[in-house]
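Hi,

Apologies if this is the wrong queue. I'm a grad student, and the batch job for Lrp/AsnC family transcriptional regulator from Marinomonas rhodophyticola produced an output file that my downstream script rejects. I'm not sure whether the problem is my script or the file. Here is the sequence I used:
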Amino acid sequence: MRNNLKKEECVLDGIDTKLIELLYANARTPVSELARTVGMTAPSVNERLKRLEESGVISGYRVEVNPKVLGYSLMAIVRMRQLPGKLKALEALIRSIPEFVECDKVTGEDCYVARLYLKNISELDPILDRVSELADTNTAIVKSTPVTRRLLV
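Support response: The file is valid. Your script probably expects a header line. Output copied below for reference.
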């Protein structure tokens, strides 16, 4: 039998929101410091974090890597429209190219919008040549990022 239960939307209070903001800024913040900042005990903060994790609000703790420090000076956004019958092959190819760091399957004329990092512009054409066997592409080089990925709470 199919489960028709709808998962309820999680409602955050001010303390939950503050904890998420603190962890978003630094996921390695010790629980004792989080507790001091929000005016609670460490066990209480641990319980809140456990509840936020179990409800799916907090889905993980991540390290943020600066691509420029690793020599990746260029970021490009590639929009792709697959050739007939090539959707699954295109997705597999995108997954196999490590320079693609993010990809969304979208509606509209394009089927994928992806971000990739490059050490220099000469790396772009070989990647696009591989992709063009399966899709038409439209590429833009990112000049700056006025809004970085930000917190929703």
